[in-house]
Write a structure and sequence with these properties.
The complex is a heterotetramer of chains A (about 200), B (about 675), C (about 375) and D (about 425). Chain A is built from six helices and no strands. By secondary structure, chain A is an all-alpha fold. The longest helix of chain A is centred in the middle third of the chain and has 32 residues. Chain A is elongated, with a radius of gyration of 20 Å. Chain B has a two-stranded antiparallel ribbon with strand order 1-4. In chain B, strands 2-3 form a two-stranded antiparallel sheet. Classes of the chains: A mainly alpha (about 200), B mainly alpha (about 675), C alpha+beta (about 375), D alpha+beta (about 425). At the A-B interface, helix 1 and helix 5 of A face helix 5, helix 6, helix 7, strand 4 and helix 19 of B.
Chain lengths: ~200, ~675, ~375, ~425
């Protein structure tokens, strides 16, 4: 998304074109995108809320949850938000080394979270909760799966952002690019907090 | 092209596009970027909002013809009792694809065409905020549309109606792949709309010409922005629904499996939460166009501009609170039915405001009846009819008698054809000289207009009667013993409607004839300001230069261009306007003080590549998951190629190279 | 003249075109055809772009090079790709003997390596300036390398670590392992960010050690296999075993006591102090004794327990083919609700049904009974 | 409009709705003068002779409620429409360019704008209030007098009459036998002047139950239970059509509601519950019975039918052959006068007309007479038995059913010989 048309030619330094609002195009666009993402997860969450009790004589939520584990992995994801903040701040200090470092750490923690999700899904499956078992399972795996995909995409972007920084290939304003990735990452985090509360903590 | 060193004339621009042999400075490898500004390559890889706008228009018109043919087949089938033109199966596919094509592949992209072409011009910008995303959007739409229609050759189109209610959409009830194609095709076009929405919103919010406050925004741009916000929030909802449909059909999920306790109404809610805003997505752009045209030909500013803006926004908001009026018969509780019924009536108020203000805009004006004006007035009248019949079924109980009958078909065709499509035609006649530098023939235009109006009223008018006589929609046959006799017998009016379709088709045909006639050799170039227009897009050449404006105009008034041409010489409360400058003079003034150094982002082929990966993945979902993987890799690669590509091609990419630019510094 | 890049693509598209035709003619089958067709179109598309972006001619980058003496032309830089190709080849060979998966991996390795090789060779032809040539290579390579490398990296970590966790002996130990690794990552990061002195090479070493550990752990755990995770039996399972009694069964642990979407129930059965009664939508007055339900239609039956002690609701289904003998809910505590979706396939006047005592709703341990009539 | 009273047989006999008609038609006259426009067309549409699904000819309390609510709305809409059109017409004529000077560039008048917000707001409020009232009234179910279960499936309707706790069906106790559930299809029979509550669901996809002259439509959704109130004081047949798109033969999914005076309903009830009478030994019908058991009874239930060979009762298991899991119960086929989802008539056109157009007084007897030998519409019935899927599009080709694990949706081609068809028709003719 890091391309902008030059609006008026008086500024040519990139990422910081003159705009009517003073807000950079990229940042505005990212906010718009996240706004639309909210409704995506809104739809998925409400579907799950509607179907969480629909499992007839099959496994119900409270029979498979492993709250301690999920809390641990949620905490890890939260921490990754912290490291993301550190990455952004190092980027603002033009400290490439630590930017790369914190980006990688963020990516690692994210990967741990995803690994945790894989582990969790596997155990659920072993316990007899397949994707097609019941409405509850279908909507649960879809909701959490969508979130997992969002995290994974984020990780891939983070990792290759590290690559781009070290190869000096970042297009446009490096600070801003890192910040945009940060926005996305935090959003994915917040969504998980919501999912964790609604799906796991509130008893069905 | 990247740099125009002033003074610049077209010749130089053309020069740069004719590639010569590679030179020592020349760039290397397949990653040399396309830089042509003429020839088919310049269209394939362009990121110029004007070229993209035109391509949107052309493709949309193509799908308009496709959808029209489907409509004519439907009407042929229903012309008489027990029609045999189509089998039940084909008929079901026909009306499903007719609706899908018209909504997603004609009206929406046609509006996108105008939005793409004119929003930057109307706000005095040199391009949209994200030109490459803009290009991606177009190609995604095109590939999505083609993908959707390949279903005809791969086992038949979708046959569940454009609303695709579950569980009728599940594999057991719709065994062909049609529904899969439908769902995935809409996903792809949905991505296009979403990116387009983000792009245009940012453009309008961030790239307005100096002095253009939001309340000086041309009304068309305003309506477009409202529409983009609707898209931004409506698309993800249908995306969720379509994903569930895909999981249900391709991966045996249980979302709509009643045996597992599923609630089929879930789909209806998700669909209509998207589907109702969709109605405004279809109709608001053409409201914008009408609101542009009426003032021009009445020589009067839009009456109550702020009110029209706010009513547009209001429609946008309230539009989210009325979705369930599509479900009055589907067994919601009385409480919610009553609530949604009232909400639906409420939305009639801002809509009424528009009609009234349009009329008051003409009132006391100096009305010239050119073809665009004819169409604009046509919209007011036809849409009023549609709006009023809408009021009759905002009344929930009477809706339970009318919904899913032809009365509804009549209603929304008056709204969507009378409201949206006529408006788009108005736009084409109005902006044609701006886009192509030629006027469309006025006399042919009038015939075209009257045939269209007569045709649509012949086609859709009788459907009010047919519906109130109790003929449901989506029946591949109707029979004598339910037709009744006398003046209102269903048989007669069905025949009339079918005849009307062909009159309508003739009208549309004339439009194409008109294009041909107007572009024959020897037809003279359009004047610079044929309509004595009022808004910014006319302060430049016809068609506009690639960089739109030599100087980014300074805006002082709502109708900037008008106020540059006319001046109020009246004294003490008494007004008289005199022309102080011709369009040519205004333009000359602009060109004299042209900006010294304009640069635009260069073409790129990543957008088309990325878009191309989407249908591949979609085929993968239907036929073979390895194909899906392949598509995904292509997508990933093009995504990163895109991400690693500088906004502007390095100077070496231009032969002969065009001097130096600060752009080069930004390669990083 | 065409460059290696274009030639490569031309070759590929030509090959896949032929492949498509052959497949279409000889084998047919919509899947493959569509697959190959789109592959071919994709390649032709790329080749077309490549060719039409006229100057795919890298050699033209640096004319001096051709005029210059042989000495001017740089030595080809050292390259790992030949090794890669070799390894791949070996893997393919091994795969043929050991396991098909190896062959696939080998194939991928060979393809990747030779592509890189090709690319490098091609790039080195660009000019006499090695740095410039790397730049040339990068332009083409990074677009693919970066995302793919990232994806593979992610895949490895996720796979390996999830193996480790699945291998861990108990749930709690999994949580511990998980938390420990997370903490290490976090603090490792903190330490490194402080230790400015740490040289790039040291950091590289560190990371490689970590990844080796992870890989090793994953491999070990993977070979070790997962810990035994018991299937959690459902009331449906116990119903099959005819275990719908009063006593608590494992399926009753954390059994849900609430139900969403009561709107679409076809009957709401309530157990209160004064017996078993039901309400059908539309009529408010509770009934008992007999209920009539439609045949071969999923009926959502809600059971609500308003008595003090937990109760199990049982739907007695006659022993006719295609349906279990009975369905039962979990033990429902006071005020709890659970839903059963029942589909009666045979009418109650079917002799088979009558013999096996007919359809009924009962509660384990009580002689309350509602006859179910299926017309 | 005045001719409405003359032509409209059913309405003029219903005394309580007559006054409504009078003020309607008088208002209608005003309207007619009010000129063209949507609502005129709409109101006039109300007067077409005998369009069986005319939404503007209520024949029962519920439909009447809707009618009384909707015609003033149409009227208002029409009047508003006419005014707006007139206004526009005046504007474009009055202010077309006659060389007048460029008008003042006024951006609007606040008071005018607010006025034009206020007017529609008031009108709509006036419409909204009664609307809410009627919505609530139509959804009230407390005073229900009779509950009938309606189940839709591709592409026909099944009705089953519940036996109440008091052992009656809709308050009617069978005179001969003890009450037991009744299952019919296609034609719903209800007693006149009774508040009937349809409790509807579906076996496969969403269908919609709609008898325009008795009430608005209501979707019948699988897995959900929805209600629809029907009530009529005028004996007769009221036509309807499935209005939620339900797949291939959506157009061929019809229903009719038959309203009978209470005495006639009692007769109908007794007839429905009559024990099964085996056809006479050696008659064509007797052969038909055997053919029926061999060919049809896998899916079609005939209550009380005994297998002459072993004396067992014959039970059908449609769920093993039909995807939706049901097929019409044929116990008293010839009492109802339609078949195949009420799409074709069992009566010849003349006989049909005789029944449909008979006066309410004699309607009951004519309907209960059922289908006689010489009134039987053999053409359609034979075509149907010969090759059902050819007559009504259905998914019944065994070759293309892997998605539904071999189960058909609709009646398959049975390859019956002409003799077998004769026998079956003879047998079915006795099912009344």
């Amino acid at each position: 998304m890091a391309d902008t048309a030059v609006h008026a030619d008086d500024h040519v330094d990139h990422g910081a074109h003159h705009t009517s609002t003073g807000l950079s195009n990229n940042k505005l666009a990212m906010w718009m995108f996240l706004g639309s993402e909210c409704l995506l997860f809104g739809g998925l969450i409400s579907t799950y809320m509607l179907y969480r009790g629909r499992h007839s004589a099959n496994l119900g939520p409270d029979q498979v949850w492993d709250i301690p584990f999920t809390s641990a992995s949620s905490f890890v994801l939260l921490m990754s938000s912290l490291t993301m903040v550190l990455a952004v701040s190092s980027a603002n200090r033009d400290d490439d080394r630590n930017t790369k470092l914190w980006l990688s750490v963020t990516a690692l923690l994210g990967a741990l979270f995803v690994a945790g999700q894989v582990y969790e899904f596997t155990t659920f499956y072993r316990e007899g909760l397949g994707f097609t078992t019941s409405l509850f399972s279908s909507s649960f795996f879809t909701l959490t799966g969508f979130h997992g995909v969002h995290v994974s995409v984020g990780i891939i972007m983070l990792m290759s952002l590290v690559g781009m920084i070290s190869k000096n290939k970042v297009v446009g304003d490096k600070k801003e690019v890192v910040e945009l990735f940060g926005l996305y990452w935090h959003f994915v985090d917040v969504v998980w907090i919501l999912i964790f509360t609604l799906v796991y903590l509130i008893p069905a | 092209m990247a740099i125009i060193e002033r003074p610049s004339d077209e010749v130089e621009v053309v020069d740069q596009s004719t590639p010569s042999e590679a030179t020592p400075e020349s760039s290397y490898g397949v990653f040399r970027r396309p830089v042509e500004t003429t020839g088919w390559k310049s269209w394939l890889f362009t990121i110029d909002h004007k070229k993209l706008g035109i391509m949107y228009g052309v493709v949309a018109m193509f799908f308009f013809v496709v959808g029209g043919i489907e409509a004519m087949l439907i009407r042929l089938q229903l012309a008489g009792p027990n029609g045999t033109v189509l089998s039940a199966d084909k008929y079901n596919q026909m009306f499903t694809m007719h609706a899908t094509t018209m909504v997603f592949l004609f009206v929406m992209p046609m509006a996108a065409a105008f939005a793409n072409y004119f929003v930057p011009l109307q706000i005095g910008a040199r391009d949209v905020a994200f030109p490459r995303i803009n290009a991606f959007g177009f190609w995604a739409f095109l590939f999505g549309g083609l993908f959707l229609n390949t279903s005809w050759f791969l086992g038949g189109g979708a046959d569940g109606g454009w609303f695709m209610y579950a569980p009728n959409s599940s594999v057991a009830f719709s065994p062909s792949n049609g529904v899969d194609f439908w769902g995935l095709g809409l996903q792809i076009t949905g991505i296009a709309s979403l990116t387009g929405a983000i792009n245009l919103i940012v453009t309008v919010i961030n790239m307005r010409a100096p002095g253009m406050s939001l309340m000086k925004l041309p009304i068309f741009t305003w309506m477009v922005m409202v529409v983009q916000f609707l898209l931004l929030f409506a698309m993800p909802v249908i995306t969720v629904a379509l994903f569930m449909l895909m999981f249900q059909r391709s991966f045996d999920a249980t979302f709509f499996t009643v045996e597992a306790g599923a609630d089929p109404l879930l789909w209806q809610h998700l669909f209509w939460i998207f589907g109702h805003p969709e109605v405004y997505i279809l109709v608001l752009p053409s409201f914008g166009i009408v609101s542009e045209i009426l003032p021009v030909f009445s020589k009067k500013p839009l009456f109550g501009y702020p009110l029209i803006v706010f009513s547009g926004a209001a429609i946008g908001f309230v539009g989210w609170g009325v979705w369930a009026h599509h479900m009055f018969a589907s067994g919601l509780g009385p409480i919610s039915v009553a609530a949604f019924s009232v909400a639906t009536m409420a939305i009639a108020i801002p809509t009424g405001v528009k009609i009234v203000n349009w009329t008051l805009t003409m009132w006391g004006g100096k009305i010239k009846f050119t073809v665009p004006m004819l169409y604009a007035v046509g919209v007011i009248i036809q849409f009023t009819i549609g709006g009023l019949s809408g009021v009759t079924h905002s009344v929930a109980p009477s809706d339970t008698q009318q919904t899913d009958t032809y009365y509804i078909v009549a209603h929304f065709h008056y709204v969507i054809f009378g409201g949206a499509v006529l408006g788009l035609f108005a736009g084409m006649y109005y902006w044609w000289p701006k886009m192509f530098g030629k006027m469309l023939n006025e006399r042919l235009g009038r015939v075209n207009f009257w045939l269209t109006i007569i045709g649509m009223n012949l086609t859709f008018g009788p459907m009010h009667i047919i519906g109130l006589q109790g003929q449901p929609r989506r029946m591949y046959q109707w029979t004598e013993n339910r037709a009744g006799e006398g003046f209102f017998n269903i048989g007669f009016w069905n025949l009339v409607a079918s005849i009307g379709t062909f009159v309508l088709a003739l009208g549309v045909l004339l439009f194409f004839v008109n294009i041909y006639v107007s572009h024959r050799k020897g037809t003279e170039k359009a004047p610079l300001d044929p309509w004595d227009a009022r808004s910014l897009e006319w302060i430049t050449t016809n068609p506009p230069k690639e960089h739109n404006f030599d100087r980014v105009p300074q805006v002082g008034h709502l109708d900037e261009f008008f106020h540059r041409k006319y001046e109020d010489r009246g004294a003490d409360g008494h007004h008289e306007f005199h022309q102080v400058a011709t369009a040519e003079e205004v333009l000359a003034e602009e060109e004299k003080n042209a900006d010294g150094h304009i640069h635009l982002p260069s073409p790129s082929y990543w957008p088309i590549l990325l878009a191309f990966s989407l249908p591949i993945m979609a085929y993968g979902v239907i036929y073979n998951l390895f194909l899906l993987l392949g598509g995904a890799v292509l997508a990933l690669v093009s995504f990163y190629g895109w991400g690693l590509e500088p906004h502007t091609a390095p100077e070496e990419d231009y032969d002969p190279p065009t001097g130096t630019s600060m752009e080069v510094a930004s390669h990083g | 003249m065409f460059t290696t890049g274009s030639k490569l693509l031309f070759g590929a598209s030509g090959a896949s075109l032929i492949g498509t035709l052959l497949y279409g003619v000889l084998i047919g089958g919509i899947m493959g055809t569509v697959g190959l067709v789109s592959l071919t179109t994709g390649l032709i598309f790329l080749a077309g772009i490549n060719a039409f972006i006229r100057d795919a001619n890298v050699a033209a980058d640096d004319v001096t090079r051709f005029s210059g003496s042989a000495a001017a032309t740089p030595r080809p830089a050292s390259s790992v790709w030949p090794i890669g190709v070799a390894v791949g080849g070996v893997l393919i060979a091994l795969g043929v003997v050991i396991h098909a998966a190896l062959t696939m991996i080998g194939l991928v390795v060979v393809l990747a390596a030779s592509a890189e090789w090709l690319l490098q060779g091609w790039a080195e032809g660009a000019s006499s300036d090695a740095a410039h040539n790397r730049e040339v290579r990068g332009r083409l390579a990074y677009t693919a390398e970066m995302p793919v490398a990232a994806a593979i990296g992610l895949g490895l970590i996720v796979f390996m670590f999830s193996r480790v966790m699945l291998g861990a002996p108990t749930k709690s130990s999994t949580i511990v392992a998980f938390s420990i690794v997370a903490t290490i990552v976090l603090f490792g990061g903190a330490v490194i960010s402080r230790a400015r002195s740490l040289s790039a090479s040291k950091m590289f070493g560190l990371f490689s050690i970590v990844s080796v550990v992870l890989l090793a752990g994953g491999a070990v755990a993977g070979l070790n296999g997962e810990r035994e995770i018991k299937e959690h039996h459902t009331t449906a399972y116990y119903a099959e075993l005819d275990k719908c009694g009063e006593e608590e069964i494992s399926a009753d642990e954390h059994a849900s006591q609430t139900v969403a979407g009561k709107a679409n129930s076809s009957a709401e059965v309530t157990l209160s102090e004064n017996g078993l009664s039901y309400i059908r939508p539309g009529l408010k007055t509770p009934k008992s004794g007999m209920i009539q339900l439609p045949r071969s239609n999923p009926n959502n039956i809600l059971f609500r327990n308003e008595t003090a002690e937990p109760r199990r609701f049982i739907a007695e289904l006659a022993d006719v083919e295609g349906s279990p003998a009975r369905l039962c809910t979990a033990l429902i505590e006071e005020g709890g609700v659970q839903l059963l979706t029942i589909n009666y396939t045979a009418p109650s006047f079917d002799p088979a049904v009558e013999e096996s005592g007919g359809y009924a709703f009962v509660v384990a341990g009580l002689d309350e009974r509602i006859e179910v009539v299926v017309p | 409009m005045s001719h409405l009273k003359v032509h409209d047989r059913t309405m003029s006999t219903s005394n309580d709705s007559t006054p409504i008609l009078e003020n309607m038609s008088s208002r209608g006259r005003k309207l007619a003068t009010a000129g063209a426009g949507l609502s005129a067309a709409a109101l006039l549409a109300g007067c077409a002779t005998d369009a069986p699904q005319d939404t503007w000819k209520p024949a029962g309390a519920n439909a009447q409620k809707i009618q009384d609510l909707q015609w003033p709305v149409f009227l208002t809409a029409g009047v508003v429409g006419v005014i707006v059109m007139a206004f526009i017409a005046v504007t474009v004529v009055k202010y077309r360019d006659k060389g007048q000077p460029i008008p003042e560039q006024a951006h609007g008048k606040a008071w005018l704008e607010y006025l034009f917000i206020a007017i529609p707001a008031v009108i709509l409020a006036a419409i909204a209030i009664p609307t809410v009232g009627v919505v609530m009234a139509l959804n009230a179910t407390d005073d229900t007098e009779c509950v009938i279960n309606v189940t839709g499936q591709q592409w026909w309707w099944e009705y089953d009459y519940e036996v109440g706790a008091d052992g009656t069906i809709c308050g009617y106790a069978p005179s001969a036998v003890e009450a037991s559930p009744i299952i019919t299809s296609g034609q719903l029979v209800i007693p006149a002047n009774t508040k009937v509550l349809l409790r509807g669901t579906s076996r496969d996809v969403i269908h919609s139950y709609w008898i325009p002259r008795l009430n608005g439509k209501r979707d019948m959704v699988p897995g959900r239970v929805h209600f629809l109130r029907l009530e009529s004081d005028t004996p007769g047949i009221y036509a309807g059509q499935c209005t939620e798109f339900c797949g291939l033969s959506h157009a061929n999914m019809r229903m009719e509601t038959v309203v009978l005076e209470s005495a006639d309903f009692q007769k109908w009830l007794d007839n429905e519950l009559e024990p099964y009478q085996a056809p006479q030994e050696g008659s064509l019908a007797a052969e038909g019975e055997t053919t029926f058991i061999a060919q049809c009874s896998r899916c079609h239930q005939v209550n009380g039918l005994l297998d002459p060979n072993n004396g067992n009762i014959v039970v059908s298991y449609p769920d093993q052959f039909v995807y939706s899991g049901a097929a019409p119960n044929l116990t008293n086929l010839m009492v109802r006068n339609t078949f195949a989802g009420a799409t074709w008539d069992l009566l010849t056109p003349e006989c049909r007309a005789d029944v449909w157009e008979s006066s309410p007084e004699e309607f009951g007897d004519k309907y209960l007479a059922g289908v006689s030998q010489d009134c039987l519409n053999e053409i359609d019935l034979r075509e149907w038995l010969r090759n059902a899927p050819a007559k009504k599009p259905m998914y019944a080709d065994p070759a293309t059913l892997e998605q539904t694990d071999g189960k058909v949706r609709g009646m398959p081609y049975l390859g019956l010989s002409e003799d077998q068809i004769d026998q079956l028709i003879a047998y079915l003719l006795e099912r009344k």
